[in-house]
Design brief:
It contains one helix and four strands. The protein has 86 residues and is of the alpha+beta class.
Length: 86
């Protein structure tokens, strides 16, 4: 009797997990509609986004810059698109 309840609970968990996975796929599909591909070439100028855990200035705090650069692309390893929002 208890074993049947556990099996039923496991089945419900699997159904919920499948629903979550489907929902995440839906959100990703909707998000990716707005994304366009960008291929970088040698000589292109780019800016690097500074993440919070990177070297942000403790003196400037929230006023420290969000971007670093510009950098010049010197070598392209493979033709892999970068994604940017429209």
């Amino acid at each position: 009797m208890m074993y049947d309840k556990l099996n039923a609970l496991d089945e419900e968990h699997l159904i919920v997990l499948e629903n979550i996975i489907r929902q995440k796929e839906k959100v990703a599909k909707h998000y990716n509609k707005k994304v366009r591909k960008k291929y970088f070439q040698i000589g292109d100028l780019i800016w690097k986004f500074i993440l919070l855990m990177d070297k942000k200035s403790k003196v400037l705090g929230k006023w420290s810059p969000n971007w670093d650069g510009p950098y010049v692309i010197e070598k392209v390893f493979r033709k892999m698109p970068m994604r940017f929002e429209k």
